[in-house]
Write a structure and sequence with these properties.
single chain, about 1300 residues, alpha+beta, ten-stranded mixed β-sheet, nine-stranded antiparallel β-sheet, 46 helices, globular, polyamine transmembrane transporter activity, P-type transmembrane transporter activity, ATPase_P-typ_P_site, EC 7.2.2.-, nucleotide-binding
Length: about 1300
Amino acid sequence: MEGTDGNTNNAYGNLLSHSPTTPQYKFAGQQYVNHGEEDQMEIVGYRRNTTKSSVTWLLIFLTAGFVQLLFFWKPEWKLHMMFSRCTLDVATFVRLHDEYGQTFVSRVEILTEKSVKRSKERTAGEEANELTGAPAYLVPGKQGVFVPVESIKIFECCRARYWWNEGIHGFEKVSGLGDDILIDFFLEQEGLSKDEQTIRRRLFGDNAIVVEVEPVLTILWKEALNPFYIFQAFSVCVWFIDGYVYYAAAIVLISTVSLALTVHETRTQQKALRDRVHDVELVQILRNDGTVETVEGASLVPGDIIIIPPHGCTMVCDAALIAGNCIVNESSLTGESVPVTKTPLNPDNEGEIFKIRAQSRHLLFSGTRVLQTRFYGNELVKAVVIRTGFMTSKGELVRSMMFPAPVDFQFYRHTYMFVGILAAIASCGLVYSVVLRVYRGEAWKSIIIRSLDLITIAVPPALPAALTVGIVFAQRRLKAAKVFCMSPKTINISGTTNLICFDKTGTLTEDGLDFKGIVPAEDGRFEQMLDSAVAVERGPLLLSMTACHSLTLINGELSGDPLDLIMFKATGWTLEEPQTEDTTKFDLLVPTVVKPKKRFPEDQEEHGDVGIVREFPFSSSVQRMSVIVKQLNEPTFQYFCKGAPEKILTLCRPETVPLDFYMKLESFTRKGDRVIALAWKDLGSIRFLKIHKLKREDLEVDLNFLGFLLLENRLKPDTAQVIHGLKRAGLRSVMVTGDNIQTAISVARECGIVGMTEDVQIVTADQSTVSWAWTADMTAEDRKMLSRELARGRPDDKIHLSVAGGSFENIRKFHPEALKKLLLEGAIFARMSPFEKEMLIDCFKDAGYFVAFCGDGANDCGALKSAHTGISLSESEAAAAAPFTYTKGSIRCVPEIIREGRAALVTSFGIFKYIACYSLTQFVSCLLLYWVRTNLADWQFLYIDMFELTMLSITFGRTGAYKRLVRDPPPSSLLAFVPIFSLLMHLVIVITAQVVAFLLVQQQPWFEPRSVTIERWNTTDPEHEYRSYENYTVFCVSSFQYIWLALAFAKGPPYRRVVLTNLFFMATVVFFCFFDLFLTLWPTDFIQSVFQLLPAPDMAFRATLVSIAFVNLACSVLLEFFCIDFLLFKKGGKHAKWIRSSTYLGDVEAAIRNKMDPRWWTNIEHSPSKPLLNIHPPTIVSHEGFLRGTPLSSIPVASSYVSETTGTAPDQSSVSFLLDDDSKITDNGTFVSRHPADDLESHISMLEHGSFDLGASDTASEAEVIPLLDPPPRTPIVVQDRSLLFDSQEVNSDVVNGFDDTVTFARDDDEVTSSLLHRPDV
């Protein structure tokens, strides 16, 4: 309600929250709510201006309510005309403007104690006298404490409520108990009293996700006030006044049916969404006096403590678990049906800040299903409510479905512009009509009606409906292919896609994993890989596989993470849980026991059982999980840990980790294997009670490395074929995954995103530097060629970049030049969080790409919504926010959607051009007939509009999509040269044909002017009002033109199938051709009477009109298919960008390159303080100095060294040679190179001949050679097998003769190393 200004919270201002989550940020005079969040909006305050309001109401009265109709379409206009801007603290209305350009207007209400008393939403049983002496409202303060106030300002926008926070002097979203509260706060909660719950509910509202189903009359009223229907109503009025009764009645009938269908569809969708999200649950809550009460779920507020029943429930709010464990099915949000174990907040994390994202493993989310609870004895499983209603995770999802981001597509923007152009043309015709009729002295009523009639002709009212024809048929074809579209307008946008981002697991690869093997490590060395876990001997390694997991039995079935299931089942062990009620297992000393089958000796069987005493669940932040176990009849406890190898390595004792750890890891990940590291340690004899008090960080130190667990993630059968097809069509594919970068590279090669002979550079970045390294799986020739391309600063299509999420964030924030290159050449984005995926999509969009994203699960939800075309392979509620959903879980739907999108877009283009040409054709006909004081008759309009136009438009879109994707994208711009030229040339042909026929009929000897026919026919009879030879001639020629235009714009390959396959369309064309021939050549008396035709008495002239019509057909088809499609679109567009109406992938990439700094790749102006890029440049190393331990700081860089010496070593006692970019000097003075064998041999050969080819560089030409002074007689061999490094003295004594100091080099290939070591000449 609108209230007074009121300083409501001054007395409590110092107690109110200054939380930075949604403060009122001010920038250059602008203020924002939800700053930094997805729904950030600019906010402006307004208060009523009496003078402006009075003037506006007068305008509304004088315009018979038309100004009020404008306010309905544009509410912000009402604010500007009736209100004045003011500060937010005194505003009675606010205007909010989001990033998509949408504007929302909301009324600011001031709620007081009187508001409470007269509120109709008072909960049942609440009476004013119950709360005597209690504050009217409670608002969030610091650290979760609620502050009493007597009044509060609020407004609502898009189902979100905002309240005035004096602490930040701005509006803040009502969001419950969120971030920046200490964890201790939740653990200390004891429940709310009924009174406090009631007061909090006044601010937070009901805990309900309400999707209102509007009454039929309300929906009808809103739809009827749509500008399209308003224009239809205006046109119908003009036509009725002008005597076009039949035509106007037909339009009224069609519009009524259209409105009824729209209302029915809207109401059906509202009901479906309501039924989908509506939850009615009774919930048990704990009051502050210790009693348990059963209440409706709608009455919950943040701060309530709910009791989770033993056998589960469906969550109706977001809550933080504070006691007991829960096994939860989160498939409704994540799309994954694997149960997840939720643990309570850890009381040991005293002083830690609560973060919703970081604490997700302790949170129960609204809409998820709790399957079971586990607790100690009679202890209750409790959770603190943190968010309710639309503030919950499910509520936010429903909000995104109710208020989706608007579709911003160039084609739709251009349609509005083109309608404006048609309106301008209509204005010119109106001026022509008025001047002509005033000159002839016609009555003003006739002048006004005829002129307005011309506007209704030039601006086609059927255009919005016609544009949906192609989309409707494409949607039906997609539905038949099991692809369901939630946003039909997105179908057109999908046709412009030129970049597709794929998630990996579950999208490109199978959901499940296959056990591949186990690589044991003992005494700091890796042993031979075992293909079967059954072959693993009894010991810590086997126990880590059998016990380090989170599996559980639910209704007698083993359930848990797929990785854990595969690992455990591979061991052949069994899992048992004590025969007691599932919900009380926490009361037992050992709730879960794993035991082997009969495969160990009898003396080991009695020690076989292993109890899992305590579990530390997997956390994505630490990338590992762990357990504490105890073997039967053993006095000690053991700690096992598994997780990402890089993380486990940091927890292990160095002497237990093999020196070739990274080599082995890289060798497996390059093959696409999923690698899990295992570690353990003995905890000794500890009391059981102490076990449950140990902190995780205290346990995860000095672990013993056990080895690697290898799992395979196989490609889906059709993945490689689909990627190859997209590549062949010139569409770029990118992988965006949360998996390891080397695994992602391997899968990218296997599926074809990266070619087997193409190299990938791994990009790393911090805030100051960006660097990369070559992968080591390409030939020497390819490497040399790529090195030269880099040195020349030329991009090459064989270069692909890969980056991990952390480095991507640094590049996005601190290295704009590197970001451009990454967007241009990036093929693999690994270790990407959901937020980073969404940011990547936004970066691609900002760069000019039309992006599709294909993924599954809630972790892809943001990216699915952000992409131009989101394709979900999951049916979860979270993924349902994507425009497209495919139920068969394969990426084969991607080319199908793009093909249908291209077909729909070309259909929309053709329909638009057809409707525009139809309007202009009829406009020309009317202008010609106006010249002789006549017009088309009622039934002539009816036949053209209701029969020819409608039937041709509907069947036009039935042509299916072409069977394959082609490299050339379809047109996407209506205002480009080609579509404009096409329309103008067709208009020239139309005008020429009509004018020639119009003039020709007047030259015939039997021709009678309009003045004569007026005398012959009784003009007071409506049946003869428009009869004339001119009318007959223009109508007959134009009726053929509407058919020819439909044929000309009904494009076939390469985006749609051949038009002949559209049998309905071809049958319609043939039928109307014959009927028009009948009207022109042999009209019966009945037809002449109905259509008011005055046929030419000469059959030869009638045949001439048919000839003109077919010449028109030939010209239209020749123009569209040869001149437009072949010469301009296909040929000219490849050479002249200004001709194109399509967005080519190459154009987007060229635009990015043009914005790049050309010095980026060549490392010009490199400075330590602000480097452009940290390229590893060719390095010239002094051989003798290096062997004597020359420090790294004294080794010169190639660019400066070569330029100073011009190819000559500065010291006669030293020998210099060139190393490739991939080479580097390690911190311990060891030279590491990663060259293939042939490259190594070429190095040796050139050194022995006293020269070395520089290749291309910044300061030396390709032919330039540096002479070597006193080359060494022997060349150190390059090896990288770490096992050989243990015998480095022996290796070096055999190989490096004549040198005093020991030197060790590194080499990739063990086999090559071995062969080189045994060469007699080395």
